Amino acid sequence: MKHAAILIIIALCLFWGCKGQTDNQTDGLLVLKEQGSFSVGGTIIQNPGTYDANKFDNFKPYPDGQTFHGDHAYVFYQIPDNSRKYPLVFLHGAGQSARTWETTADGREGFQNIFSRRRFSTYLVDQPRRGKAGRSTVAATIEPIADEQMWYEIFRIGIWPNYFDNVQFPRDKKSLENFFRQMTPNTGGFDANVITNSMVELFNKIGQGILITHSQGGLPGWFAGVKSSNVKAIVSYEPGTYLFPEGELPEPITGRTGVLSGIEIPMADFKKLTQIPIVLYFGDNIGKEVSNDLGAENWRTRLALGRLFVEAINRHGGDATLVELPEIGIYGNTHFLMSDLNNIEIADLLSDWMKEKGLD
Amino acid sequence: MKHAAILIIIALCLFWGCKGQTDNQTDGLLVLKEQGSFSVGGTIIQNPGTYDANKFDNFKPYPDGQTFHGDHAYVFYQIPDNSRKYPLVFLHGAGQSARTWETTADGREGFQNIFSRRRFSTYLVDQPRRGKAGRSTVAATIEPIADEQMWYEIFRIGIWPNYFDNVQFPRDKKSLENFFRQMTPNTGGFDANVITNSMVELFNKIGQGILITHSQGGLPGWFAGVKSSNVKAIVSYEPGTYLFPEGELPEPITGRTGVLSGIEIPMADFKKLTQIPIVLYFGDNIGKEVSNDLGAENWRTRLALGRLFVEAINRHGGDATLVELPEIGIYGNTHFLMSDLNNIEIADLLSDWMKEKGLD
């Protein structure tokens, strides 16, 4: 009897111990098998001439015969213990970096931690010419132009200086400041091809995985799905624009923030996107009709074109879903669904979808 | 007997299980209690005028009444399970970012992982106007000027295109390419005060810790030691320049790469640096005499001034040590000691020093 009692106690301890090592979700510890960073993709400028170390004057550049490596992406990855089959690759949007997926503006866990705890390997990208991947093969001028009230509205936090009544964004001053400080500029012009190439190289390197994009990252994401057979699914949070097959390009859609067009690609390429499951998520406070609200307008057009994209995918035999969160009873999401106050609920939706598609 | 055997087996399993949770060094798993990122420091530009959302023309900026948050640092942190008393704060050098401390160019673990496995909390900084902390309150123009052969020499990998015979740098082409791709540009002019302020704010936020700097990060590191009583020790890998008390500034030292001066500060400020243990490490292939080798020359002067700095600290009652690695039998280190082929040995030196100083 005494032995049996000790056995039970030890067995319980053992159970908790093993849980700590294999299940990241329940006990608070993140247990990683591996983490690190690397560059992927990019090109090399070889300047003509011959390098001569004698041409040196107080670090003034003499490019003769020298090289410049640029236009690569930077990737930080974490592989949890006992990880699931497909890694998740995260590509940020305009003016952002991999930070988009890290700690939220009010200090909660972002998708990096949430999905690591769910035992997915995560690959967080700084796209070429952004963040830690700053060496660009094209020049740029960066100026401190005050623009944050515009982004506040475009990102659907509210109508400055007010918050939307139902907004899933923290209302304290410090959180808004943190949110603004997440932005980081282009160090060279945005080039969807350059970004796509780096994403294709990333999937060449890591093998099959699921691509998760946000906003402006949507377009290079679709291109990566066309160009890499290792992209097994695409999840897109409020993408900027879309691909359509040749001859099926919808009329451009006009709104207060501009004229939105899709991009035509050969049918054979478009068909690649019909071979993988695709899901798009859109948040709240997006205009149903034309209005004067920048955020409502900007995403009204992008949502409308997204509906046509999903129709085109499915018309050609694909499996695309567009989720408008208010229509399933989830209200108040900004453009940054993955860091909103209800981001666990948003992550749960994604987990459910991956499970449904046999991707987890 | 049967019960006893089962008990032993379960006890062994339990032992391994517990080890997996609490000792990061021996079993390959990184066990983290917490990880995340945040901004710290920085300023806000408030543009005069009134924000008007009607002034919108295809994302052309109308700064009237808008704000711009910039000049903060970006910090990524990891707190291992059962972490040691003092966190380590890592500040990179010129043209670099926090990547400096992550995976090495040939794919080995950098100081981030090495010291996390040794149960130190790590805080990796992208300094203001660099990497993910790109929003700068001053403008910058970034051009793709080929300069890598110069850096190859300045960083003491060899004399282009040759490697130093004893160099602790991987000799394959891919590693060199990865190394070049670690660089990322300033998105605003280097400003030691701006960086110092963000480091002081970081130590305000996290409390007492050990500051580890590399190269150009050395100078804001010394200033942070003066300005924040939470800096309990400074470790500096090949710092760029140094502080001296008023009236004790050494003569500038001239070399092929420029004229190197220290910076004068009030004695009361300098005395702050005599209250904490300080260690400087320098690698190999640094010139003993004047030569034509850019790398040997650049670090000959900075090492010489470093000796005078250490003398000044100790003359005023402090505890500073300068370690020239070849003098203790460690050869071939480049300017990037912490990612060289022998970086475990370099990390061991630091661990020993922290132990000796009662810092671990």
Automatic annotation (TrEMBL), chains A, B:
Xref: SUPFAM superfamilies: alpha/beta-Hydrolases
Taxonomy, superkingdom: Bacteria
Full protein name: Pimeloyl-ACP methyl ester carboxylesterase
